[in-house]
Specification:
- The complex is a heterodimer of chains A (65) and B (918).
- Chain A is mainly α and 65 residues long.
- Chain A has a domain of 38 residues.
- Chain A has a two-stranded antiparallel sheet with strand order 1-2.
- In chain A, a hairpin with a 2-residue loop joins strand 1 and strand 2.
- The termini of chain A are close together.
- Chain B is mainly α.
- Chain B is elongated, with a radius of gyration of 53 Å.
- In chain B, 47% of the residues are buried.
- Classes of the chains: A mainly alpha (65), B mainly alpha (918).
- At the A-B interface, helix 1, strand 2 and helix 3 of A face helix 4, helix 10, helix 13 and helix 15 of B.
- Chain B: It holds the Pfam family HATPase_c.
- Chain B: One of its GO terms (molecular function) is kinase activity.
């Protein structure tokens, strides 16, 4: 797995995460108006974070099979 | 409001529960039924990352900076994504070479350097002391909040003196517990199963406690997330917290720096290294931790912002210390037990961090700072210490106590002035200095000891100047003057705007300068010289750990020692009984009967050193082992030779392949040659039988006529003359046959003599025709000559060519019909060659015999019809013509005669220049 497909997927996930959690993508969510009654930045950060954890879980648990 | 007795009793009860868990874990480990050998416990133990800083400090940070608490947890999420690249390699390296701390890791990588190990230890201790102080501060302020020893803003009353200060007793209690968890006995593997079990348990407790408080604040005090956020949006002051730009002045650069800092910290913090690398049971557990640990971080952070906003909404801004919201909100609502639960959660976070961190740091202090110094002293070397396990344990326990007391000291000196989060970030920036030397050491062979030393030193100095000293100065323990005007009044040396770099927050600023200085020094100094043999060998062991496997290190050690010397040495540090046991196991693994049969080979030395490395660190182990070993240090060339060995083996196998291919080709050639030999053998047999057959025919007639003359003396003269004539003619034929056979043999073997002279072919043909004229006349045949006008010169053996002509002409004479026979001989010059045709109107040769007539003893026609001959004329003629580079062939149609043709090459212009052959 270290050099296999899952390893490459994880590296790709890292770069996607690094992109999403930094400027300029982050600034897209930084709006002052509420999003479903909650701060958009806070909601988006947690949703993206959860999605990333989900993707990583999918990659590694799938590789375990 | 709770009484102090209740809080202390509950705290001690909780610590005892923790200890019970740890004791249970240790017992199970001894029985071989580990309770931590699963990926869930492993991932939970990693959550020691979440300390009191997370538990109390995140809320405090969110209260002043909105979502700015998040990079500290996004960084680890990103880092864990790369765990299969980085952490797995660290785990494999640490397991293979028994590395038990970051200091040991770096020291081992750069040639087992004591100096480097000591420097890393000092950085780790200095960097971790504020962090430990932070935990003490969290516990003590939590206690004061719970017991009501605080003012209306929940700020604790200042402790009047050291003796009355509860924090000191907290520190001492924690020291005792840490010793119980991590330094009760000495373990060669430096693994603490019980401690890991307790940490995992604590992780569950702190998560549950925090979630309970979060739910309480969000859904009991307020009416869910929507309600809190709606109120926050309504408050113009709080609304600013909800945006990244307005909440902090650090900007996106600061956000990135914070993420990077946390990313590095989760790998290089001593306690993370301890639980992730040293305490790892199975590499496969890392797989689940890759997502489970980030998921834990996400869960524990969901309620941070709601609690912070809730506290600010409830108490108002600036009235209550936001770091205590987790406790003060339940207390303000009269939920004492809830507040106690929150305190236990915070206690969990703080104790977990303190226990693991001090164990990790004390291992470093013992193995990489105290032991090397002890080993250096003459007194220690000379004196006989039969068993040093007690000394080792004593050093570790002392180190644990010392680190905690230093933490307390920092808390007394600077703790009050700083918020929790800022202290934590200072520590993070310190451990980030390990990153270049660690990562460089794992992926780059070129790093040298001086490079690592320079990098660490530069990074540490810049960190201390730009972050540590300002924090001390701001606490009032140093003159603030250098902060505002720079060192020695030099403006460009202002610690928080080094070289005039302004516009960054202090953490980003310090991180940038320290890492820049660190990486630059590490790389540039490393590139100043070629690595030494030991550095190169260690570099290879680390960089290629996945390729080399477990047995490789022995190859880099050239030295030997008797087991009688090594066993007592190991026993001094591990205890006699355990040392005997592990040597026994080692012997059995090698199929030997017992310790006595162990051979003094490099492998044994390596084994002993690895065992010692677990207990006293790689560098000290090397020193100890080399005291009993006759070791020859390896030079760079020799190390490279060893490294080349593998490629040589590959080269050998390649050569072997080539050779076997060549062998196959040779076999095929030999087989062909064998076939050819068999064929020649067959031809020889044929030749012999032909020759004997040809010899027998004339011999038979000679013998018959001789016997007739011998038996009957009264034969009349006429018959006698006729018989003698036949005998003479047959004898001549025999002589001719023997001559031809000899001739043939000579030509074929290349021993024939050739007398080359300049000859005129026209003359030669005329001469030959003249010689054979009588033969044709006897048959009544006509000979036609077609010769060119000018002479055709050529350099060759005159007699041999005459032989060829005579053979062809006599053949023609033999075969022409008795009536109306004719023969035509033509000589002509073609480009580069002279051509001779001898045609007749004989019976012709069937096409299937055209090739056969040039073989030895093969004559055309059947036995009866063919005229007399040896069957060697044409083969010899062909040999002669081919000797001069020409060709001889025949064209024939049955019933219409045959044409024998031969060509001889001549130089284009002049016959004189024909070079002589032999």
């Amino acid at each position: 797995m270290r050099t296999g497909l899952a390893g490459q997927r994880l590296v790709a996930a890292f770069f996607v995460g690094a992109l999403l959690f930094n400027y300029p993508v982050l600034s897209l969510f930084d709006r002052s108006e509420p999003f479903i009654g909650m701060p958009m930045l806070w909601v988006c950060l947690f949703v993206l974070w959860a999605m990333m954890i989900g993707v990583v879980a999918w990659i590694v648990e799938r590789g375990a099979r | 409001m709770l009484s102090g007795t209740v809080v202390v009793a509950v705290s001690f009860a909780y610590l005892l529960v923790l200890f019970a868990v740890a004791y249970f874990g240790d017992r199970r480990a001894e029985q071989g039924r580990s309770i931590i050998a699963n990926s869930w416990t492993y991932a939970l133990s990693m959550a020691v990352y979440c300390t009191a800083w997370t538990y109390f400090g995140s809320v405090g940070r969110a209260a002043s900076g909105g979502v700015w608490f998040l990079p500290i947890y996004l960084g680890p999420t990103l880092a864990m994504t790369l765990s299969w690249l980085v952490l797995l390699k660290m785990i494999r390296i640490a397991k293979t070479y028994r590395i038990t701390s970051i200091a040991d890791f770096i020291a081992s990588r750069y040639g087992k350097s004591h100096l480097l190990g000591g420097l890393v230890t000092i950085i780790a201790v200095v960097g971790m002391i504020p962090y430990i102080a932070l935990q003490l501060k969290a516990i003590s302020s939590g206690y004061t909040v719970l017991t009501g020893q605080h003012d209306s803003g929940f700020f604790p009353f200042a402790g009047s003196s050291w003796v009355n200060d509860g924090t000191l007793y907290v520190a001492l209690t924690l020291a005792v517990f840490t010793v119980l968890f991590g330094a009760r006995h000495l373990d060669a593997t430096e693994r603490h199963e019980g401690m890991v079990a307790a940490i995992a348990f604590e992780s569950v407790v702190k998560l549950l406690a925090f979630l309970v408080i979060g739910v309480f604040v969000t859904y009991v005090v307020f009416d869910g997330f929507g309600d809190i956020f709606a109120r926050a949006f309504a408050d113009p002051e709080l609304a600013g917290l909800l945006s990244l730009k307005t909440a902090s002045s650090a900007g996106y650069g600061g956000w990135f720096a914070m993420t990077l800092l946390a990313l590095l910290s989760v790998i290089f913090l001593p306690r993370q290294f301890q639980v992730t690398v040293v305490e790892n049971v199975n590499e496969q557990h890392l797989r689940r931790a890759t997502w489970l640990f980030p998921a834990y971080l996400l869960l524990i952070n969901i309620f941070v912002l709601p609690i912070a906003l809730g506290g600010l909404l409830y108490f108002g801004r600036g009235t209550v210390d936001p770091d205590t919201f987790v406790l003060s909100l339940p207390l303000a609502h009269g939920e004492g037990m809830l507040a106690l639960l929150a305190f236990v959660g915070g206690l969990s976070a703080a104790t977990g961090m303190v226990i693991v961190e001090t164990i990790a740091v004390s291992t470093m202090v013992c193995n990489d700072l105290v032991m090397p110094l002890l080993l250096r002293t003459e007194r220690f070397k000379r004196s006989e210490h039969p068993d040093l396990t007690g000394l080792l344990l004593g050093i570790r326990r002392g180190a644990i106590l010392g680190v905690l007391l230093l933490g307390y000291l920092y808390f007394r000196l600077a703790g009050e002035a700083y918020a929790l989060v800022s202290i934590g970030l200072i520590s993070f920036a310190a451990v980030a200095q390990f990153a270049p030397a660690m990562l460089g050491g794992m992926y780059w062979r070129g790093g040298t000891r001086e490079g690592a030393l320079a990098g660490l030193l530069a990074g540490f100095v810049v960190w201390a100047y730009t972050l540590m000293l300002p924090s001390v100065a701001k606490s009032g323990w140093l003159d603030r003057d250098f902060l505002d005007h720079g060192l020695f009044g030099l403006g460009f040396l202002r610690p928080e705007q080094l070289f005039g770099l302004a516009g960054l927050d202090s953490i980003s600023h310090a991180l940038f300068w320290s890492l820049a200085a660190n990486i630059a020094s590490y790389v540039l100094v490393s590139l100043a010289r070629v690595p030494t043999g030991q550095e190169a060998s260690q570099a290879t062991l680390f960089v290629d750990v996945f390729r080399r496997g477990q047995d490789a290190p022995a190859t880099f050690w050239r030295g030997s020692a008797q087991v009688q010397d090594l066993l007592p040495l190991v026993a001094r540090f591990l205890g006699a009984e355990r040392a005997r046991r592990i040597f026994q196991t080692y012997a059995l693994e090698r199929g030997l009967g017992g310790i006595e049969q162990l051979k003094p080979d490099p492998g044994l030395v390596q084994f002993a050193e690895t065992q010692l490395a677990g207990a006293i660190g790689g560098a000290s182990a090397r020193v100890m082992v080399s005291s009993v070993v006759q070791e020859e240090p390896l030079g760079l060339d020799e190390v490279m030779d060893i490294l080349d060995e593998a490629s040589q083996v590959r080269a050998y196998s390649h050569q072997l392949e080539e050779k076997s291919q060549a062998l196959e080709a040779a076999t095929a050639e030999l087989r062909a040659a064998n076939e050819r030999l068999k064929e020649l053998d067959r031809l020889k047999d044929d030749f012999m039988s032909s020759v004997t057959h040809e010899l027998r025919t004339p011999l038979t007639s000679i013998r018959a006529f001789s016997e007739m003359l011998f038996d009957d003396p009264k034969i009349d003269l006429k018959d006698r003359t006729r018989f003698l004539g036949i005998i003479v003619s047959e004898t001549e034929r025999l002589t001719r046959l023997v001559n031809q056979v000899l001739d043939m043999a000579k030509i074929e073997s290349g021993h024939a003599e050739w007398h080359n002279t300049d000859i005129d072919m026209r003359e030669l043909v005329e001469q030959a025709v003249e010689t054979t004229a009588q033969l044709f006349r006897d048959r009544g045949a006509v000979v036609e000559l077609d010769l060119p006008d000018e002479a055709l010169h050529l350099r060759a053996d005159h007699d041999r060519l005459v032989q060829v002509m005579l053979n062809l002409l006599s053949n023609a004479a033999k075969f022409v019909p008795t009536a109306g026979g004719w023969a035509r001989i033509s000589l002509s010059r073609e480009t580069g060659q002279i051509r001779v045709d001898v045609s007749d109107n004989g019976p012709g040769i069937p096409s299937d015999e055209l090739g056969v007539i040039f073989e030895k003893f093969r004559q055309g026609g059947d036995e009866h019809s063919r005229p007399q001959g040896t069957g060697l004329g044409l083969p010899i003629s062909r040999q002669i013509v081919e000797h001069f580079g020409g060709r001889l062939w025949v064209r024939s149609t049955v019933g219409q005669g045959s044409t024998f043709t031969f060509v001889l090459p001549v130089p284009p212009e002049n016959a004189e220049t024909v070079q002589s052959t032999q």
